[in-house]
Amino acid sequence: MAKTMAMQLFVRVVIWVLWPVITIALAAMGLTPEWFWGLLLGPEWQTKVPQYLTQDYARWAAVLVAIGLGVAYLYFRFRKPQENPIANEVTNAELLWAQAELERQKRLTLKEQRAASASPPKPSKQVRKQDTPATVPPSRHDNDGPIKWKFTKPYSVFGHSRGYGEGVWIDGFQIHGRNSTDHSLMNIKASVRPFVTHEQMSLFFVINGQQVKPEDTAGIPPHTDFTIGRVLPAEDPQRTQGIPADRFLVKYGGFRFSFSYECDGNSSNYTTNFSLDDVRTQISVIEEQTRSQVTPQAVVRKREGNDI
After folding, report:
1. I need a surface site. Which of 47, 183, 243, 252 has the fewest CB within 10 A?
2. What count of other Cβ atoms lies within 10 Å of the Cβ of residue 235?
């Protein structure tokens, strides 16, 4: 008896819960609840089925279903995603690795800075454009080649002048040499390049006091002295050429001398540097040689009234 009552209660609960769904399905097929109960229980269904189970619940069941779908949408739309502990572990591990790498780079940078401060920088072997005249290394002025250059005292690489009571003026470049070979030097090109202005300044032969382009000559004969140079423009309107020696040091500084030529069918090129110290030495030699031009000479005169 108890088992039968429990079964009936279970069936009623199931039918009550599922009834809205059943009525929606019946309405979709164009059928009524009466047809459903008549098919299920036979002609005597009216005495066995409660009245509330014969009503059409399709309308309010549809409303409930719509509300349920709306609640489900809102739930899945705004719920917070669950954190993945494995992903968090990976992220934390990457963060720790990045911090450790940053610390390692800082340590390496500090080591490099200490090493750089401990050892002085190596001097540059090449003369670069950013080098100042004072940093250009002096040349040995090798003089063992076929041309014997006359760079040192009593010669000078500058044409100069000095008036009474004046300092030394550098009128231009004036470089002396001698072809010590048995052949003529042909296809000559010569230039100087100051380390301050970096201007490539061509040099000319000085023949009878005139500047002549090398290509306008027949070259340098064997065993012959020659002079090659260039006049510097005047900065003083009262002069035709040259600038004061101290002004030359500032405007031009040191320079590079280049001389290319052909001798007996072979091409050669000679290059040497004159550092700022070399130029100062040249100017000192010129001042020594021209000192007599600015020193008044003592004149001995006979005193009046003391005739012997």
Report:
1. 47
2. 13
Are residues 141 and 42 located together in one domain of the fold?
no
Residues 156 and 281 in one domain: yes
Phi/psi-derived region of residue 224, left when phi > 0, alpha when psi is between -120 and 50, beta in every other case: beta
pTM above 0.90, yes or no: no
Per-residue confidence (pLDDT) for residue 83, from 0 to 100: 53
Point out the least confidently predicted range of 141-150, 173-182, 185-194, 224-233: 141-150
Phi-psi region of 223 (alpha: psi -120 to 50; beta: other; left: phi over 0): left
Place of tokens 């500047």: 211
Residues 148 and 282 in one domain: yes
Cα 201 to Cα 232: distance, rounded to the nearest angstrom: 10
Quick: pLDDT tens for 236-270: 888 888 999 999 999 999 999 999 999 988 999 99
Asked if 226 and 177 touch (Cβ cutoff 8 Å), the reply is yes
Q: Is 185 part of any domain?
A: yes
Q: What is the mean pLDDT of the chain?
A: 76
